[in-house]
Amino acid sequence: QVHLVESGGGLVQAGGSLRLSCAASGRxxxxxxMGWFRQAPGKEREFVSRISRSGSSTYYADSxxxxxTISRDNAKNTVYLQMNSLKPEDTAVYYCAASEPGSxxxxxxxxxxxxxxxxx
Length: 120
Fold this sequence. Notes:
Blueprint: E1 2-7, E2 10-13, E3 18-26, E4 33-39, E5 46-51, E6 58-60, E7 68-73, E8 78-83, E9 92-99, E10 109-110, E11 114-119
Parallel strand pairs: 2-11
Antiparallel strand pairs: 1-3, 3-8, 4-5, 4-9, 5-6, 7-8, 9-10, 9-11
């Protein structure tokens, strides 16, 4: 099992940047594919980005492509989400998630979330 703790959320003006971090503890971090999701008020949780165990492959939702960058530091057991050119519609609670090997890409463990608010 892995325990995930997000940090780095906050209030930022439109056009600004934030970097989210997700620190993992528990089983070997490098075993897990990692992802970021978000949930805005009154909306379903949606996929934002994911990264492979080695970090060599990354995927993004169309809504954030070109503005957000996911990365991971396996030595620090941490995954990051660099968010640039933020828009008010990026306002949401952002969740980090881990996918176990052999799970078919589903995410099995979730953090508690960190609030990102983008003002216009």
